[in-house]
Amino acid sequence: xxxxxxxxxxxxxxxxxxxxxxxxxxxxxxxxxxxxxxxxxxxxxxxxxxxxxxxxxxxxxxxxxxxxxxxxxxxxxxxxxxxxxxxxxxxxxxxxxxxxxxxxxxxxxxxxxxxxxxxxxxxxxxxxx
Length: 129
Ligand SMILES: [Zn+2]
Fold this sequence. Notes:
By secondary structure, this protein is of the alpha+beta class. The protein contains 6 helices and 4 strands, in the order H-E-E-H-E-E-H-H-H-H. The chain has a single domain, classed as P-loop containing nucleotide triphosphate hydrolases (Rossmann fold).
C-alpha cells in the first residue's frame, strides 16, 4: 500500500478478520465422508477419517438446511519476530507460515474446524472466504 514498514510495525497491535456464516440445522444435518476432490479443494492436511456435515432441510428449518448464524474469525497479533519479518519486507507467504507456526489460525482453518464439528458446512465456509 506504499506505507513504510516501520510505520506498520510501530502502530500495528492486531488485525481481526471475520465472516458471518449460516449454522446447519441440528435437526436434519447429515454427516458424510468428504471426497478426495473436496479434501484437495480445502487444501489442509486433515485426519483421514474426518467427517463433515451437509444441509438437508426439514420442517424445523423450513427446508433450508440452515438455522441461525455464527462467525468464523482470524486474529493476527504480530510477535517481535513477525514484526522483524514485516520490517525486512519478507514475502506474505513466509510471514503467514511463521505466524501459523506460532499458533495463528487463518479464517479458512477456523471455518474448517467448525465444519468438522458440525456447526456449519464446508460449502458455507468456502463461500464465505
Ligand atoms: Zn432442518
